[in-house]
Design goal:
Length: 233
């Protein structure tokens, strides 16, 4: 269970963060939250699809790593087999908290990456912020801003009815059947049918590029299936 603490250089002066990747470090995840500004760098590695939020009130974009809960097909004995990782993966075990309008960095003190004995130091010996933590601060701010922009992007997709549910049936080389369901993708026919005015608004609001990046990312399903087949041997 997560135990969130406000990060500070007194209580956490000896904090180190394990930065390698593995299932025991919290990377055994099927997907991670992403945001439109990140689609361009992620679409060459992962399918980008959409899921309903936990409260069921909206949708959120995710980068997909596997076909079932707890499955990350990018994990190998050598770590994470991709050159780009979603920022929401890179930021672990840190997160942003609020005190009024002030943004504050919090630590999940029970996260397996949090250590006192190995990894990247969060603070310098005399209390200053390490280069590693400076980078994490930047990552957290980018995530905060990016997720803040997601609301308008999702609203535009819903306005034009551009999200459709899909079911992906997969037959692996060993003959086993697998089904991926419960996710949504861009409805390409409805996108193609939009008039110039609607496309112009999507372009003006910077929604058009991430829409096409999400569509392009679906080509990565082939690579995901190949990884699954290799895992099955």
């Amino acid at each position: 269970m997560a135990r969130h603490e406000l990060l500070n250089n007194v209580q956490h002066k000896d904090l180190k963060i394990i930065t390698r990747h593995g299932a025991g470090l919290g990377d055994d995840i099927m997907f991670a939250l992403t945001f439109p500004a990140e689609f361009r760098v992620l679409q060459g590695h992962y399918p980008i699809v959409f899921r309903k939020s936990d409260d069921g009130t909206t949708f959120e974009p995710i980068a997909l790593f596997g076909f079932e809960t707890g499955e990350n097909l990018f994990l190998t004995n050598d770590g994470w087999d991709a050159t780009e990782l979603p920022l929401t993966v890179q930021r672990q075990p840190f997160l942003i908290g609020r005190n009024g309008d002030e943004l504050l960095v919090h630590l999940d003190a029970d996260h397996p990456r949090a250590s006192r004995t190995e990894g990247e130091a969060a603070f310098l010996p005399h209390g200053g912020v390490s280069e590693y933590l400076e980078r994490i601060n930047s990552v957290l701010l980018t995530i905060h801003q990016g997720i803040g922009h997601t609301e308008g992007f999702i609203a535009a997709l819903l306005e034009h009815e551009l999200l459709e549910s899909f079911v992906f049936d997969i037959e692996l080389n060993d003959g086993s059947q697998n089904r991926l369901a419960g996710f949504y993708v861009i409805h390409e026919e409805r996108l193609a049918a939009l008039d110039d005015a609607a496309l112009g608004r999507l372009h003006r609001d910077r929604h058009l590029e991430p829409i096409y990046m999400a569509i392009a990312s679906l080509a990565q399903f082939r690579g995901l299936i190949d990884r699954k087949n290799r895992q099955r041997g």
